[in-house]
Amino acid sequence: MTTNSNCSALADPKRFRPIQDLHKWSPDCMVAVDDSFELKDEFLFITDPIHLGQTMSASTDPSASYVRTRGLTVTHYGGKASCPVLWCNPYLLLPLSQSLEEKFLVPANTETLAEKISCHSGTLLFLPFADDIPQSLRDQVNEVCTDQNGAKIRLAAGTYRVFYEQFESPQGFQEELYRNIVAQKQ
User: Fold this and answer.
1) Considering its fold, how many domains does the chain have in total?
2) Which of 15, 41, 82, 165 has the fewest C-beta atoms under 10 angstroms from its C-beta?
3) Rounded alpha-carbon distances, angstroms, from residue 122 to 1, 10, 44, 73
């Protein structure tokens, strides 16, 4: 990747679009209805929820409840993909768009917080890793990170709103293939 000194080269708010409301297509999907997450003094865990297995579908398990009430799920983007996790204040970027060239410009003051996040199901989970996380979920998260199927990253405390960064898609192609995921510190 090459460098550029301006964070607006990393993410352009003019291209930001609201993320999907999962309840519109699945009212009983058992995830929080929100487009933001809050961090205090904790890590943010990012993974494909498929790596948490049964935790996501259990209805009474404390780990499932923690994920449903505190996690933010994003879908309707390029699907099966992998990318780094980049930070340039105030943007956390997962560059997934197929419109990006392999050598897209990365601002010089950008941090790579994770070399690669893999997504097999077309869904990503953003989960604050607070002190009250159930031990069984804590163990699962640590295993997912050890297997390099997710990452725990440290960001400044605050509220982060999640958007799609929508690029123009060629005629006849799905627009979902031309989206990044951006979390902007509010």
Assistant:
1) 1
2) 41
3) 25, 22, 19, 10
The most distant pair of C-alpha atoms in the chain lies apart, rounded to whole Å, by: 48
Q: Which helix (H) or strand (E) holds 65?
A: helix 62-70
Nearest residue to 150 via CA among 100, 110, 114, 102:
114
Q: What is the pLDDT of residues 122-140, one digit of tens each?
A: 888 999 999 999 999 999 9
Q: What tokens appear for 112 in the block?
A: 């790579």
CA–CA gap between residue 129 and residue 39 (Å, rounded): 9
**Per residue in 59-98, pLDDT tens?**
678 888 898 889 888 887 766 778 899 999 999 999 988 8
DSSP line for 7-27 = GGGT--GGGEEEPP-HHHH-T
Domain coverage including residue 27:
2-185
Strand 111-119 vs strand 16-18: parallel, antiparallel, or unpaired?
unpaired
Taking the model in full, what pTM does it have? Answer: 0.86
φ, ψ for residue 79, nearest 5 deg: 85, -140
Whole-angstrom distance between the N-terminal and C-terminal Cα of the chain?
27
